[in-house]
Specification:
155 residues; alpha+beta; five-stranded antiparallel beta sheet; two-stranded antiparallel sheet; 7 strands; 19% strand
Length: 155
């Protein structure tokens, strides 16, 4: 019978150090790594936007935070349920679906946050910053690019 080989794109760097008691914090790590800010600052920003400790975050408040922090949505991709939801919520037309492996070739310069199913992570100048390996065949759902760094006053 056929054998399926899964290619995992390994992170070259974990990026920021997370809080030891934190989990399901990919939204925090992605913001910290892509914006070049401390994890503590990103954690505080997302907590003020409604993220709860050890919980993920829904798309709409997450998108608002990323936008406020200077990221611009560069595209919504594919026809998965999540991609259609994002496109409908933002009233944008989704682009043709693309795998993570193919998208990584396009993200060689700049700071990005990439959303795949149930997960987000940063890509900085072509380098994936994440605690986990991601499947090369994962379908990209959305990408934000840092266009203008927000000024942050964190106590």
């Amino acid at each position: 019978f056929p054998v399926t080989i899964m290619v995992i794109l390994k992170s070259a760097d974990n990026g920021v150090q997370r809080f030891p008691d934190e989990d399901k914090d990919c939204t925090v790590r992605a913001l910290a790594n892509a914006a070049g800010m401390p994890y503590k600052t990103a954690h505080s920003i997302l907590a003020r936007a409604g993220r709860q400790q050890r919980r993920g975050m829904t798309f709409t408040p997450l998108h608002k935070v990323y936008t406020r922090m200077g990221f611009k949505l560069k595209g919504v991709f594919g026809s998965t349920y999540e991609a259609r939801y994002i496109a409908g919520t933002l009233n944008v037309e989704p682009q043709q679906g693309v795998t993570l492996a193919r998208m990584m070739q396009r993200l060689q310069n700049g700071r990005y946050i990439v959303k795949i199913s149930g997960h987000v992570f940063a890509v900085v100048d072509g380098k994936m910053l994440d605690y986990y390996g991601n499947l090369a065949g994962s379908r990209v759902q959305a990408i934000w690019e840092l266009e203008q760094q927000a000024v942050i006053f964190d106590k």
